[in-house]
């Protein structure tokens, strides 16, 4: 029954795996088919609402420049069209906003931004709003709509996703063009020209970058537009506006280009949504074929396994009886004779079986008998060797384990006192250090430690975790740093690397001095600085250490005093991290760790209101002293 049970476990796993493969493949097909639905219910009404908001922004800017009955009537009519597009977006988005948490959150963000329209309209009508403030308010609403486009564009098919992302970038370039149009609808002020210059640069860069990534079927239309005389004329006007001029025909030129870009982008988006259906059909066909093949294989495997299991169970029963005879009768008799110094003759073990492997096992049991005889002779020597190994292993762990025992005894006497909590913390911190030392040996052997993260981790948390693994963590001051995040697979190694540098800084600096850790964004990634206030290093030694850090040498057992340096160099080389030592203004040493940009990601975007609320907290931020474990 156990053999049959062991066979049924993998067979049941095969059935479950078959179901999972079928479900996952079918879900991929359904998700691809849903892409067109999301285009109809979310992206298309979002495009239409964006267009109306762009027109309302232009009409509002024109009214704030020249207050006339014509401009007022145009703005009122445009607001009606915007409200109609807003209601249509709300109705259609309600049907698809629950597709995923990401899309639901983005739709809520769009609706929250749309709620800002009525207050800004009231300020415009009352004549209390500045022109630049009005434009930036409308910019915030359209930015939320483009955030929705980027979230909806996520799809499992990489070619479609890549093209969708680029089309969204091109659409955003058109949005920047409409912002230029509103800013330069007349004479501009100095702040407006500065914003206009930034938008022009961003639009040109974004458009040039996106055109290089579009496939030929989507690129040709865009290229024909940017090579047209009207587009070249617009670029000349942009330069004139940046220089402080107000070219004639700006609105008519940009309006024609805006309309052409809008039609081209809607056509490209519709084309991409249509591409998803054939891909979904192919995925679904592959799912049915794979599911059918796997089902047949599962049925055949079940029948074959049950038949073979029944036969093997009978043969293994005979093998079991023979093995019991060897272990209970023959080997004890042999050992007893060896102890008495008698001559031993062990008969071969004979097992009848039609399975070659079971016959081999029977022969192996016969060999085991002979091996047992030989093993008895060298048992004394082996016992001494094993004892020596255990003594060496015990000495390696003796120091830290002894400290743990002392702390545990102290905790037993003061279990009811508040200080017991501090003892527990020290014990946990000691265990953490022991783990890091063990990981250091793993790294030196060329293997990879087991710690890892699946999601990005803020670099501030990474540095705090590293400081918590150091004995003198009370001396470590982790200063506030940007919210960039470190890729999950790299987190464990970076924590270990920084911990080694911090521990080195605490060991080679006076006990009363702090060790400061800073971090900031660099051109090629993220830079961390570990600075101590010790006696420093001579230029010759520092040059040698930097050479070792740049090119890790082979580990030398005779050079065991610099294990931390070997660990840091190995970790840095594994992830292309640059570690450099230099002098500190305080006379000590500063270790600079440059993490490549490929391992660092920006913090997640937050709504504009939340970011505003957090600004006072950033201004009042103070240096953080690490006082707790990992």
Q: Taking Cα atoms only, what radius of gyration do you get, to the nearest Å? A: 36 Å
Query: How many strands?
Result: 9
Q: What would you call the structural class?
A: alpha+beta
Please give the order of strands in the largest beta sheet. 6-7-5-4-2-9
The number of helical segments is 18
Oligomer: single chain
Count of distinct structural domains = 3
Mean pLDDT: 76
**Straight-line distance between termini:** 48 Å
Biased composition (Basic and acidic residues): 607-622
Region (Disordered): 598-630
GO molecular function, one term: protein histidine kinase activity
Protein name: histidine kinase
Walk me through what this model shows.
A 6-stranded mixed sheet has the order 6-7-5-4-2-9. Strands 1-3-8 form a 3-stranded antiparallel sheet. It is extended, with a radius of gyration of 36 Å. Strand 4 and strand 5 form a beta hairpin. The chain has 3 domains: 1-297, no CATH class; 345-450; 452-601, Histidine kinase-like ATPase, C-terminal domain (Heat Shock Protein 90, 2-Layer Sandwich). The protein has 630 residues and is α+β, with helices and mostly antiparallel strands. It contains 18 helices and 9 strands.
Give a short overview.
This protein is an alpha+beta fold and 630 residues long. The protein has helices at 2-65, 69-96, 101-114, 117-126, 131-152, 158-183, 190-211, 216-226, 229-242, 250-340, 356-377, 379-413, 419-444, 459-467, 488-507, 539-550, 563-574, 608-619, and strands at 457-458, 476-478, 485-486, 515-522, 525-531, 578-583, 589-596, 600-601, 624-625. It folds into 3 domains: 1-297, no CATH class; 345-450; 452-601, Histidine kinase-like ATPase, C-terminal domain (Heat Shock Protein 90).
